[in-house]
């Protein structure tokens, strides 16, 4: 079931830069009535507020803090499209003295952050016949050794997204799982990826996926290569064969 952006109220976590900032631009360009800019530092959205005026509203919140996200949901009861873009991606291999601490930190933001957002907004999205969009990664499907803990945290997030698709879908809520490859963002550069795709490719892909009612989005050239190898597996109902 597709969802039009026009006249919708949307919310974007991590809206102040990179992919999040591009998503805000695309939402407004496609007719969103208002976009909540959810960030840890409210001064970081000043440029967006100057550019879009009353079409945006900044709210301070942190996906790593349950109380913060519950308070966020209480302030944004009119939202019908929630895009959980906030995440962290520190390069780390599977071996190392501090690997447990690193993995725990990335899980707390990338996986538990999704759980916090989904649970806080489930009833709102059901009431408003809305959508939940989760920014995962090609690393949620294929582990990259230099980003091993990040890959594992995104794999957990992707698994949870699949569960949310079933549970929220039964309530009439559309769920989209986004799997970008290397994107030209600060995080992409820090991870060692050069010549990444523009964040706008991801943002416009989200708009199209929402309108078309697609679950998976592989927006950029490298991601599309992985999609070609993965799609037939993901579309095949293995459990049905076992029943």
Compact description:
The chain has 243 residues and is of the alpha/beta class. Helices cover 49% and strands 13% of the residues. The chain has ten helices and seven strands.
Biggest β-sheet: count, sense, barrel? 7 strands, parallel
What is the gyration radius calculated from CA atoms?
17 Å
Query: Low-confidence stretches at least 5 residues in length (pLDDT < 50)?
Result: none
Number of helices: 10
Strand content: 5-15%
CATH superfamily heading: NAD(P)-binding Rossmann-like Domain
Give the strand order of the largest sheet, numbering strands 1, 2, ... along the chain: 3-2-1-4-5-6-7
How many beta-strand elements? 7
CATH topology: Rossmann fold
CATH class: Alpha Beta
CATH architecture, by name, is 3-Layer(aba) Sandwich
The number of domains: 1
Strand pairing plus helix content: what structural class?
alpha/beta
First and last CA, distance: 27 Å
The general outline is globular
Organism: Dyadobacter jejuensis
Protein name: Short-subunit dehydrogenase
Family: Belongs to the short-chain dehydrogenases/reductases (SDR) family.
Pfam families: adh_short
Blueprint (SSEs and pairs):
Elements lengths: L8 E5 L4 H12 L4 E6 L6 H7 L3 E5 L5 H10 L5 E4 L14 H12 L1 H16 L3 E5 L12 H22 L4 E5 L7 H5 L8 H14 L3 E2 L3 H15 L2 H5 L1
Parallel strand pairs: 1-2, 1-4, 2-3, 4-5, 5-6, 6-7
Helix pairs in contact: 1-8, 3-5, 4-6, 5-6
Protein name: Short-subunit dehydrogenase
GO molecular function, one term: oxidoreductase activity
Family: Belongs to the short-chain dehydrogenases/reductases (SDR) family.
